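Box S1 | Example of a co-folding query
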Amino acid sequence: MDSLDHPVIITFRPAEQGGKRALAHETRLQFWLFDKPNGAAFCDIEFDLVTGLASSTFAKGCLDWQTVICSHHDFVGVPVDLEQIYERMAGTPARILKVAVHADDVTDCIPVFKLLERARREGREMIAIAMGAAGIATRILGPSRGSFLTYGALETDGATAPGQLTAKELRELYRVDRITEQTLIMGLVGLPVGHSVSPHVHNAAFAAAGVNGVYIPFEVRDAKSFFGRIVHPQTREIDWNLRGLSITAPHKATVMDDLDWVEPAAQEIGAVNTVVVVGDALHGYNTDATSVLKPVIERFGSLRDSRCAIIGAGGAASAALWSLRREGACVTVFARNFQKTNSLAEKFGARYENLEAARFDAFDLVINATPLGTCGQRENETPAISDQLRGARFAYDLVYNPTETRFLREARDAGCETLGGLPMLVQQAAEQFKLWTGADAPIEVMRVAAERALQ
Ligand code: NAP
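Box S1 (continued) | Returned holo structure for NAP
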């Protein structure tokens, strides 16, 4: 240990507090008083033990309290008496206080940020973290809010606590060392969000364009509570420099109720994928709609009077339908849910057909706007096979992960030209960048970042 050139934190944790094995109280005392290796910069000792050590004159004298981190872990939730726990910990001689709680929902980050605020006000050195996927914001933003440090794993599967990012991600993707309270905060709201490449795309764009901004994934189950307590400037419980959000499934339609103004196109489509904080208000846009056809038109030319089929009747299908009608295309929607599809088709003057046993030979363009083919459980699925697609000219899959989907393979077998969802992803992200920063996006940087993240 003496030969290490980086400061080291020692822990000796019993299983019930996050360690790997059961440890008797006496074993833990023995370790900290007599057996701990020399040369560590910090000793992370659990609160229950710190109390005992601090009350014994002998034990108290054995420790250099300037190196002690007094820690409290809760792997189940956020204790209701978190503030009182902090006060009791602050009464010990430990120099640094650490609280790690489990976040079930992003709103569980609020008490953690509030505790950091209080510690800073009171001049206490503090580490506060919400564990779990919903707590990632505390790991990324903590140091800029006064957290003494944040934890990063050395390897992707080497996390020592739930939700822990790698040190490489913290440094290179989120650029944690550069985040300050002035840094603009953007992020992705959805459930799930772990698969998304958007953090790679947007953070790379901010770095390349010299924007002091960070883009964070927010895994949100209850969007209403998230918008009320964390997002809306008039009601939120934390003070942060939030500039905007990307919205993904399943919240694109429901968040509209929480916005102060929604652009007419997004209103017509019935979905918002971009939120911008404007003063005290929230504005909503749909950059899926303005970007979905751009890559097709670049390859295919004008879509006026072309015969187009959309498979699916969700948010992406509505955006594609709105866009195709604006281009003057004749659209048929193919989906499995009659009621939903019929009302969508009617709203935009399109035709409706059942997806079962559909044939696409009469179409110039066939768009997959379902999640079938997405990496994971559905990777091997397709909404149409080559027999159904034969005769169609062009097949476009909005799914971008994987870049090569089964739908695209089936289409190629059927002799169609093909296009995947990656160019649309990059285009809609570039439009979001412009809405949040007012500047043109470094689109080539974003494309490369997306491709690299997908590899
Ligand atoms: P969504 O709102 O959940 O809609 C999904 C649609 O797919 C629904 O109509 C659903 O039908 C249908 N569907 C699901 N499983 C099906 C199945 N087994 N057979 C037939 N239809 C099925 O999702 P979304 O937001 O529209 O997104 C759809 C896809 O587009 C996703 O894969 C998303 O990643 C992709 N997307 C890509 C981009 C991009 O930038 N490239 C942007 C937006 C979306 P029911 O209504 O009957 O459930």
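The radius of gyration is 26 Å. Residues 198-285+426-454 form a domain with the Rossmann fold fold (CATH 3.40.50.10860).
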